[in-house]
Amino acid sequence: MGMILGLTGGIATGKSTVIAIFKEFGFPIVDADIIAREIVEPNSKGLEAIIENFGSTMIQSDGYLDRKKLGSLVFSDELKRKKLNEILSPFLREEITRQVEVKKKQAALVIVDIPLLYEGGYDLMVDQVAVVYTPEVIQLPRLMKRDGLSENEAKKRINSQLSIEEKKKKADIIFDNQGSQENLRQQVIDWLKQKKFIK
């Protein structure tokens, strides 16, 4: 039976860099963001639930979800954001659980990449949680630069998640991303060696 490692962090703290390192060593990844896109594809139950609750104006002419429109709606309204999470959570949880079950039979270590890991209670379904940590003073300008957001927009996105300091406190493992990418990479490799997943 493989170990299930939940991986989380804040927006723009360097999670995808860590995922790339795990991928490089061949460990299977269950990616909640990819699953979140799949469960709202045209004709899916997830998309039907969005139309039911937020109206058909959220759908583009090609039948796909208008992510930008939905994003700007839910990031500016806490209640609507909660509603969206409530609607999609069962579909997301079901598919994440299914993929974890399949992959843990194939590998000694399975990485479950979930941005809202603590918020969604997914820490209960993994063996340990690793947090990719960057303090907000680095996170904020990084996010503004990466996504071309104003300071206000970037703050809204950061504040829509549990604070990175809270995540750091709860974590079993911390990959500290305040230094170079090489330094971050070394931390991941050291952990893999320590746990005997690689030599």
UniProtKB/TrEMBL annotation:
<keyword id="KW-0418">Kinase</keyword>
<dbReference type="GO" id="GO:0004140">
    <property type="term" value="F:dephospho-CoA kinase activity"/>
</dbReference>
<keyword id="KW-0963">Cytoplasm</keyword>
<keyword id="KW-0547">Nucleotide-binding</keyword>
<dbReference type="GO" id="GO:0015937">
    <property type="term" value="P:coenzyme A biosynthetic process"/>
</dbReference>
<keyword id="KW-0173">Coenzyme A biosynthesis</keyword>
<comment type="function">
    <text>Catalyzes the phosphorylation of the 3'-hydroxyl group of dephosphocoenzyme A to form coenzyme A.</text>
</comment>
<dbReference type="InterPro" id="IPR027417">
    <property type="entry name" value="P-loop_NTPase"/>
</dbReference>
<comment type="similarity">
    <text>Belongs to the CoaE family.</text>
</comment>
<protein>
    <recommendedName>
        <fullName>Dephospho-CoA kinase</fullName>
        <ecNumber>2.7.1.24</ecNumber>
    </recommendedName>
</protein>
<comment type="pathway">
    <text>Cofactor biosynthesis; coenzyme A biosynthesis; CoA from (R)-pantothenate: step 5/5.</text>
</comment>
<dbReference type="GO" id="GO:0005524">
    <property type="term" value="F:ATP binding"/>
</dbReference>
<feature type="binding site">
    <location>
        <begin position="12"/>
        <end position="17"/>
    </location>
    <ligand>
        <name>ATP</name>
    </ligand>
</feature>
<dbReference type="Pfam" id="PF01121">
    <property type="entry name" value="CoaE"/>
</dbReference>
<dbReference type="InterPro" id="IPR001977">
    <property type="entry name" value="Depp_CoAkinase"/>
</dbReference>
<dbReference type="GO" id="GO:0005737">
    <property type="term" value="C:cytoplasm"/>
</dbReference>
<keyword id="KW-0808">Transferase</keyword>
<keyword id="KW-0067">ATP-binding</keyword>
